[in-house]
Amino acid sequence: MKRNQQICTYWKQVVFESNINAFEKLFHLTNANFIKFCRQYTSDKEASEEIVSDVFVDLWFHRNKLTHVKNPEVYLLICVKNKALNHWKKNSYMQLVPIDEEANEIMDAYRPDEELERKELFMQLDKAIGSLPHQCRVIFKLVKEDGMKCGEVAEILNISIRTVHAQIYRAMTKLNTVMTKHQTSHIATIIKNIASAIVLCLSLQSSCF
Known about the structure:
Elements: H1 3-17, H2 20-42, H3 45-61, H4 72-91, H5 104-108, H6 115-130, H7 134-144, H8 150-157, H9 161-180, H10 186-204
């Protein structure tokens, strides 16, 4: 069963049947991703963990009022975002955490003598992503890392789908510039091809809904 289907199944068992076992499974299935998303607003792991826990506490106490929710993951992410923004307002600061380096599988496939080039490339990628405006970076991570559709991201962040498309295109254009400087790298070629595919997807639009 796919992750999204699991979430929907557990959600229905929680809101319609008050199934505590399903509630625990839903929490464990989504907790890590929600904390990671929350840290885009708080930069504080402990605060993010507390915020996500609060969201689930609210879910349990108000479960009977949530039977109308059709996309539980989007709904919960909106709740996390709102609580995170409230936390940020109270603490009057915002600091983004560095993006995780998620290229182990790609890196393992190449020879040791390419390690220096790979490290330089990914360092430049991290730098490029880190320099993106906050909203652009959050959108990029939701689509790239969490595999969310543009429509879902738009709903979570309360923005238009057109804005999501524009911000992803902006991010990919910047990353493409980094790739161009590393044209001799096999990894750069792979990532550049992926970037081009994403940009094509945005131009077609329909595949992102």
